[in-house]
Design a protein that fits this description.
Layout (H helix, E strand, L loop, with lengths): L3 E4 L6 H4 L4 H9 L12 H16 L7 H9 L7 H11 L18 E4 L12 H23 L1 H22 L5 H21 L3 H18 L2 H17 L3 H15 L6 H17 L3 H16 L15 H14 L3 H14 L5 H17 L3 H15 L5 H14 L6 H24 L5
Helix pairs in contact: 3-4, 3-5, 6-7, 6-8, 7-8, 8-9, 8-10, 9-10, 10-11, 10-12, 11-12, 12-13, 12-14, 13-14, 14-15, 14-16, 15-16, 16-17, 16-18, 17-18, 17-19, 18-19
Length: 438
């Protein structure tokens, strides 16, 4: 028997049914077939491509077919599920739902219909669970892109997604899977906080993190709340608030202990605690916290992480340890850890590798090895233009200020020249940032 789905949020009206979706059909007909060179993508092929993308990104099987695509093109369904809209945007290369002719129809009487919403075969048949699945996929997509290009380019997009896609779902929830929806919203809000931080908007980042923590608490998701504590502790450390960094990390450790799958998160929280202690000059306490982090991380091989928890690995630990050790003046150990970050971070982890290189450069400056630091600075300049990261640029600028007195060195002079060129190229982008949402 076909599943009966009640469309509670966006009912259909008689006037809606008669209007075909010409934008969707045109987008499909502009998309080349992957099977028949010279032809456009068929409805069945489009459906298969959407299902394949959804499986790849969400690990949930959907039952979309060519008949349903035909209904979309005839206008029988004006507002498909969030999962299908995401998949269609991806396959057809659209930037928005409106570009494909989708619009939420006016609210009114509820209309029941059959087969107009083909739900995932392996997930609970509810709008809330579908939304959570799509939010998870979008969260992963945002994070992958963020690692490659930094938060500057993506922050306005994430804020817009929160306002237009996530917030309405929270208002419409009827209690079914509401905790999961709040958790998903919390995670996406935390991502917005990190992107705000990456653009230099630390006050806005703190607002996002605070809101994310409240949403996680409302969801009863202790692990996610602890994850956000790690982010808040990091931000406190960046702002020079050492005692707050330690206090918040400790609060996160207490929450993380309540849930399974939090080993990597616990290791991350220990490193946040170590950062705060190093800022206070507590070498013994910092060393103990780093040892706890290393021991915890070594013990979690094969652990299935709790949902929505940020990844934390050996390179992450090495990055935090390098900064702690430099803060304490342990330059040889700090250099060893920073070089480990560079060794481990490759592929799409462009920004993380750049931070590792900048940390190593500062360690080398402290050791009066200015030429080596300048070489690393040039390497970061080479990739910084592809990163919309104010944090990377700020650390490059600081390195330039420190090395300027040594510009008689050819290596330093070349780095300063590269940095000057980078600054001139970035000026328009910095001006544009003033118009971004705050």
């Amino acid at each position: 028997m076909a599943a009966v789905v009640t469309c509670c949020c966006h009912p259909l009206t008689l006037s809606d049914v008669s209007e075909p979706n010409r934008q969707l059909r045109a987008a499909r007909e502009r998309t080349p077939s992957r099977r028949a060179p010279g032809d456009c993508m068929s409805r069945a092929e489009l459906a298969e491509a959407v299902c394949a993308w959804l499986w790849k990104t969400t690990k949930v099987r959907y039952d979309l077919d060519g008949h349903y695509v035909a209904k979309l093109e005839r206008g029988l369904v004006k507002w498909p599920s969030a999962a299908y809209r995401s998949g269609l945007r991806h396959v057809l290369g659209a930037k928005s739902d409106a570009e494909l002719g989708f619009r939420a129809v006016s609210r009114g009487a509820r209309v029941s219909f059959r087969d107009d919403e083909r739900l995932p075969l392996t997930a609970p048949m509810s709008a809330a669970s579908t939304d959570v699945t799509v939010f998870l996929a979008m969260s992963q997509a945002f994070q992958v892109a963020d690692r490659k290009v930094g938060g500057g380019m993506l922050y306005p997009t994430v804020v817009r997604y929160l306002n237009t896609e996530v917030a309405p779902r929270l208002l419409d929830t009827d209690g079914t899977n509401s905790a999961a929806l709040f958790a998903a919203a919390s995670s996406l809000t935390e991502i917005a906080g990190w992107m705000a931080h990456d653009t230099g908007r630390d006050f806005k980042a703190r607002q996002h993190f605070d809101k994310a923590f409240r949403l996680a608490s409302a969801a009863g998701h202790h692990a996610l709340a602890a994850n956000i504590c790690a982010s808040l502790s990091h931000l406190a450390g960046q702002l020079g608030q050492a005692s707050d960094a330690v206090r918040i990390a400790d609060a996160g450790l207490a929450r993380a202990s309540r849930d399974a799958g939090t080993g990597r998160l616990t290791a991350r929280l220990y490193t946040m605690r170590a950062r705060g202690l190093s800022m206070r000059g507590d070498a013994q306490g910092c060393a103990a916290a780093l040892a706890d982090a290393e021991r915890t991380l070594d013990a979690v091989s094969g652990e299935e992480p709790a949902e929505w928890i940020a990844h934390f690995d050996d390179a992450s630990l090495a990055a935090e340890a390098a900064m702690c050790l430099r803060q304490l003046g342990e330059l040889a150990q700090a250099e060893r850890q920073a070089r480990r970050v560079i060794e481990l971070r490759n592929g799409d982890r462009v920004r993380s590798r750049a931070f590792g290189q900048l940390t190593l450069a500062r360690v080398l400056v402290d050791a009066h090895r200015h030429d080596e630091a300048a070489v690393l600075g040039r390497e970061v300049c080479a990739v910084a233009s592809s990163l919309t990261s104010v944090r990377v640029q700020a650390r490059l600028d600081r390195l330039g200020d420190i090395l300027t007195p040594h510009q008689n060195s050819p290596d330093v002079a070349e780095f300063l020249a590269d940095l000057g060129s980078l600054r001139s190229r970035d000026e328009p982008r910095r001006d544009d940032a003033a118009s971004w949402p705050v």
